[in-house]
Each structure stands twice: as C-alpha cells, then as structure tokens.
Amino acid sequence: MSVTHITNQGETIMQLIIPDHYDPKLSIRETQEAIRYIRETFQDEFGKELNLSRLSAPMMVPRSTGLNDNLNGYEQPVSFTMQEIPDDTMEIVHSLAKWKRWTLGRYGFKPGEGLYTNMNAIRKDEELDNIHSIYVDQWDWEKVITREQRTMDTLKDTVKHIFKVIKHMEHEVWYKYPKAVHHLPDEIHFVTTQELEDRWPDYTPKQREDAITKELGCVFLMQIGGAMKSGKIHDGRAADYDDWSLNGDILFWYEPLQHALEISSMGIRVDKTAMAKQLKIAGQEDRLALPFHKAIMAEELPFTIGGGIGQSRLCMLLLGKAHVGEVQASVWPEKMLKETEAAGIHIL
Fold first, then answer.
1. Poorest-confidence range of 3-17, 60-74, 141-155, 230-244?
2. N or C: lower Cβ tally within 10 Å for the chain?
3. 151-167 pLDDT, tens per residue?
4. In whole angstroms, what is the distance from residue 241 CA to residue 207 CA?
C-alpha cells in the first residue's frame, strides 16, 4: 500500500491511498449493477427491521428555520436566494438530522414508529480522500421513542439491529457477487471515547479509531462531541441534535485501506436539558431563538433516536472498493483522477 500526497503550489491538499496490486473485481457496469442491488435491498430490509416508513425529503431548507445540520460548526452550506422568497436564504442540506425529528412530530408518528429517506447533500468544505467526497448520499433515519427510552440500552439495542442488517447484506452480496464481496466481522463491540483516550493517551483520535477497529473488527464508538478528561473532544458534533452522552459511530476495520471506515453516525437526540447545556458549551445559545430549537425547549417535538447510514460507504465496504468514487458519481480534482486511473481504480 502506498500513500500519495497530492499538492497544489507545494501545499498538500489531498491524501490518496493506493492498495498494492489493487483488483476492483467487478467491471464498471457490474459495479453499477451491484450498487443498485445493495441500495434497493438494504433500504427495504433496514426499514422492516427498525419499523421505518420511507418518506420524501427536501434537498434544501430555509436558513431561518434552523433545520440545517451545522456539522462541526465551520462548514458553510451551499446557499442561494429565490425569486419568490427574496427575504430568506435557501441552504443545500448537510444532513436531515433536525428535519426528520420535525417531520415525525408534524406527521404524528408514535413511539416505535419512524422514517427513513434517501438524503443527498453537498458538503463543499469536505477534505477529499479515499472515503470523503463533497457529495453525500445516505439513508437518513429517525424513530420516535419515549422519554424513558432515552438510555444507553436503547442506543445499543438499535445499533445491534443495524449491524444485523449490514451482516445480512454481506451474505446477500456474497450470493450474487461471490468474487467481489468483502467479508465482515461477526460481532460489533461497544467502547467509549474516554476508554480510548485512557488506553492510548498519546494517539490522535483517528489513530485511536484505527487501533481499536483493527483489534476488534467492528466497534460502536460512543459519546462523541463532549469533552473527555483531557479537556479535548474526540470529534466535533453539532450541539443541537445528538445528545453527546448517548451517541456514537459505527466503525469497521477496512483492510483494503488499512484504517477505520465509518458507516454510520447516530444517537439519541437532545431533550431540552441536553440541548441547552450543549449550546452553552458550544457558544451557540443564540440558536435557541430559531423555530426548531424553540420547539425542543417547549417539548413540542417527540423524543427520538436517529442517524445516517452512508449509501456509498456501505457499497464501498461490501464490495471492497479502494475509493468512494468507484461507487458514486461526484467531482474530483484532475490530479486525483490521474493517480487513481493509473492504479486501476476506476472512478465513476
């Protein structure tokens, strides 16, 4: 395996991993067929497993609603103004984390019921590499729970259901594409960010993720966003949707690239206490004036659990692909395209 640093005017702008003797196994047309199969099959099985209904979702939301995802807080959404609504700015979504909860309340979903949708987003500030693209395609999902279900047990049980569907998809893909399937571990393990910091205090957060997934195969890394004992955070999370004490990422050790691959970010959503606390920590208390945030503080929206599952990431994982561009059509710098083509990595 080699790592190429792609530069522009002497500055490194991208990192590209090239596996040794890479063999994509499937042709581009076969890959396209496999993508369709995985996406259609997974969403049906996932919806049944978690009792989720498929809903249509917006690609853009008005800035004034506060419904867009802030991600880590520094990424700027693609935005524009409309001729018919000149006094507000429309934003291409980063994700539908808040919209889903708003919609569950609006449509009258009850505890135990939920929704999923095909979410397409643009994150123009994303740093590109083998697994990151400015185009994000994922199954965004959300499910109503009761106040009493806002627990770690609920979170872990839901993660196990999602892992079960992913494992079943491995077998489905193996049946249709036996030469291409990437085999997955049989179990998911649960670990907190604090446990990783205690074990590897001198590692970066990314190095800790790589170390634990290489050791265990697949982990659900919990409690992301809040400060650890060191005063540092493992990774950024928006302050106004996940409860930082009840969230996490599903990570697989990915042998083709020799590092962890995140498939899902999810969590139990904030109640009014958690949101007020986290917005204060983040210095974003001004967001409490927005409609969505007012509704949370007034307890007008249901308690929920939800997250996103990367569609291209899942295809990449199941098919053993070296680059996310092999399973999605996006925009890539010419230098990266030349490097990947020379290595037999066929970008769509």
1. 3-17
2. N
3. 999 999 999 999 999 99
4. 26
Catalytic residue status for 243: no
**Pick the catalytic residue: 69, 210, 243, 326?**
69
**Planar angle of CA 210, 212, 215, nearest 5 degrees:** 105
From the list 30, 33, 45, 262, the catalytic residue is 262
69 catalytic per annotation: yes
Residue length, the chain? 348
Question: Cα–chain-centroid distance for residue 298?
Answer: 28
- Copy the structure tokens of residue 204: 């970066």
Grouping H, G, I as helix, E, B as strand and the rest as coil, residue 216 is helix
Domains assigned to the chain: 2-342 (3.30.930.10)
Q: Work out the pLDDT band at 1, boundaries 50, 70, 90.
A: low
Q: Which of 43, 133, 138, 149 is catalytic?
A: 138
Residue 40 annotated to the active site: no
What tokens does 339 get?
């490097």
Q: pLDDT tens across 206-230, in order?
A: 999 999 999 999 999 999 999 999 9
